[in-house]
Amino acid sequence: MADAATRGHFVWHELMTTDTKAAVAFFTKIVGWKPQTWPHDPSYTILAMGQPMAGVMPLPAGMKAMGGRPAWASYISTPSCDDTARQAATLGGKILMQPSDIPTIGRFAVIEDPQGAVFNAFTPLSQPTPQGATGAPAIGDFSWHELATTDWRAALAFYKSLFGWEETSAMDMGPDLGTYQMFGMGGKVFGGIFNKPKQMPGPSNWLPYIRVPDAKKTAVALKGAGGQVINGPMEVPGGDWIVQAVDPQGAMFAVHSLKPAATAKKPAAAAAAKAVQAVKKTAKKAVKAVKRVAKRAVKKVTPKKKSSKKKAAKKKAGKKKAAKRKPRSRRR
Questions:
Q1: What is the pLDDT of residues 149-201, one digit of tens each?
Q2: Where do the H-state alpha helices sit in 58-213?
Q3: Entry pTM
Q4: Domain limits of the chain?
Q5: Separation CA 158–CA 164 (nearest Å)
Q6: What is the assigned CATH class of domain 10-259?
Q7: What is the Cα 281 distance to its own chain's centre?
Q8: CB of 55 within 8 A of CB of 38?
Q9: Closest CA to 97 of 105, 161, 88, 126
Q10: Which of 105, 208, 255, 328 has the fewest CB atoms found within 10 Å of its own CB?
């Protein structure tokens, strides 16, 4: 059973789609997950990378009939799925699917928060390993969870009451986007919440980020596999890179890669290169300055030499005049 230690952690992610085979092939190619058939239900595919990371299932007919589209669902751990569902209803949420059992796995409920974003409250039978429990999420795991909503303060208050989340740091994204408020528990940051801009279509929604080795390379790969990039690749504060995209069936997702090790060295290398260039420029300027000084010195010295020659010539001319005068004095 889930307990206080895992309450509020994201412990599972599930893609509901219209073409499971195509979706599995797509994410296998761009993330590197390996597909496995779930023994309890052949229609359910587990995506693994050393350990199970996510699941893929057909979009339920009922949801499809109500206009539901392919989407990722995030499961948030709670000690009692039933209690969480009841509390969510009293706080203005809507229960889209009453608490139900998943044989050998646990119990879950589908809930819509007061601003319209959907999530799953989940009580597993066995103790799950929360995202980031042993440090940074591994490649293929989900590393960030982002809520685009209509009222981030009210939404955060709702989730704080349900799961005990805490505000961490916040970032001002400017007049159009406003505050990006991050949240987490026990010193760990799970994700961020912000007010979605008017130009962002659709209702409030949760967007899960998948950790990949290189977001920029993944952007190229997903385009080649039939996906569509809607934002990025983009560097975020801290040096990490993200890409937000849509898979071929229309499900929105995002990928995230850590700041490359080489990037950390670039500033120092760039500074060194600039310093070298500065030294070269200084040296060139110094050489030019020395040459200018030398020319000035030559000009100053050269006139002196000319004047001494003139003096010598005048002195010689004076002697000749004196020599001419002497005979005249003798004649007298």
A1: 999 999 999 999 999 999 999 999 888 789 999 999 988 999 999 999 888 87
A2: 61-65, 81-90, 152-163
A3: 0.75
A4: 10-259, 261-332
A5: 10
A6: alpha beta
A7: 37
A8: yes
A9: 88
A10: 328
